[in-house]
Specification:
The longest helix has 18 residues. The chain is 29% helix and 20% strand. It folds into 2 domains: 218 residues, Rossmann fold, CATH 3.40.50.300; 110 residues, no CATH class. The protein is α/β, with parallel strands linked by helices.
Length: 337
């Protein structure tokens, strides 16, 4: 998209594998030719199992990780073509970040006022008096009482700390908010409160969001589009409302594992060896666990196939319920019958 707030084009990230010598050439392929874009006002959900590259994708988006290859554009500008100081200012004004665990993402020695006002001080936003007033506005925006100004993070509950983190992320009025597992470190009783707060802020401020979570039902509910990742690759991108009709076998398997009372899906068990990010399999990385894999899948990575408002990378997409694996027979049920 030419008008995208954030645009990743053919982005790859590799790390040296741990445990080897300096001469060890083994590399971890954290991201491989990822293409992702976020339009103004939309919410992009990012899903996939642990180790699929979600966190690396987030770090690339906020400029914390320089890609090995590819281009990262924020606000239409290549951030890695900028000088360091310019890049920090540009990212700071366009992107806000809410981390997974507020207990570790907030400086425990600073007060709430200092934490929320820190981005304003770093960017030299207006005058000190206006910065203090802005902190008060942000606290009210996220539902924090004015009496919490001088409190330390250790004196607050997990939900309150996450509200502080959200206020800090919104300090400079960024058009894009990135939420990396924003509710996973919280008690079940406050997860809904923080999620509802994020949704309310999205509507009131017209925010675009990148929402990363293991809670697949939540991602489906809050997102406009969903990106499915597997072993560092984007394997499918589709509207959240149509995720039950995912074309890629991994999308079907992933969402079949998510519990649902209204529209439950039959779980799809995956067999076969789990591939390594150090030595990924040839061709499609999912082929070692895919029930539809053929010899063709080992020859090359499938190109993107576009179908209306979705795209996917699969030689043998799921287009009919008959393409799903048959249910495994229950041996106990068979003995009783």
């Amino acid at each position: 998209m030419t008008d995208a707030l954030a645009d990743l084009s053919e982005v790859s990230v590799e790390f040296r594998a741990p445990g080897g010598s300096v001469l060890n050439r083994a590399r971890v392929h954290a991201l491989t030719k990822a293409d992702v874009s976020v339009a103004p006002g939309e919410t992009l959900g990012v899903v996939g199992e642990s180790g699929c590259g979600k966190s690396t994708l987030v770090k690339v988006l906020v400029g914390l990780q320089q890609p090995t290859a590819g281009t990262v554009r924020l606000g239409g500008r290549d951030i890695w073509a900028m000088k360091t100081a310019e890049r920090r200012r540009h990212i700071g004004r366009l992107v806000g970040m809410v981390f997974q665990d507020p207990a570790t993402s907030l400086n425990r020695r600073l007060s709430v006022e200092q934490i929320i006002g820190d981005p304003l001080d770093v960017q030299k936003w207006r005058t000190p008096v206006e910065r203090r007033a802005r902190v008060g506005e942000l606290m009210e925006l996220v539902g924090l009482p004015g009496s919490a100004r001088d409190a330390l993070p250790s004196q607050m509950s997990g939900g309150q700390r996450q509200r502080v983190a959200i206020a800090r992320a919104l300090a400079l009025e960024p058009p894009l908010l990135i939420a990396d597992e924003p509710t996973s470190a919280l008690d079940v009783s406050v997860r809904a409160q923080i999620l509802n707060l994020l949704l309310d802020l999205r509507e009131r401020l017209g925010l675009a969001m990148v929402f990363v979570s293991h809670d697949l039902q939540t991602v489906r509910r809050v997102s406009n589009r969903i990106v499915t990742m597997y072993l560092g690759r984007v394997v499918e991108e589709l509207p959240a409302a149509r995720v039950r009709d995912g074309r890629h076998p991994y999308t079907q398997a992933l969402f079949s594992a998510a519990p649902g009372l209204l529209h439950p899906m039959r779980a799809i068990p995956l067999t076969g060896p789990v591939p390594s990010a150090v030595n990924p399999p040839s061709g499609c990385p999912f082929r070692t666990r895919c029930w539809r894999a053929t010899e063709l899948c080992a020859t090359e990575m499938p190109p993107y196939a576009t179908e209306n408002d979705r795209r996917y990378r699969c030689f043998h997409p799921v287009t009919d319920p008959a393409d799903l694996p048959r249910p495994v027979a229950d041996p106990v049920q068979e003995l009783n019958s």
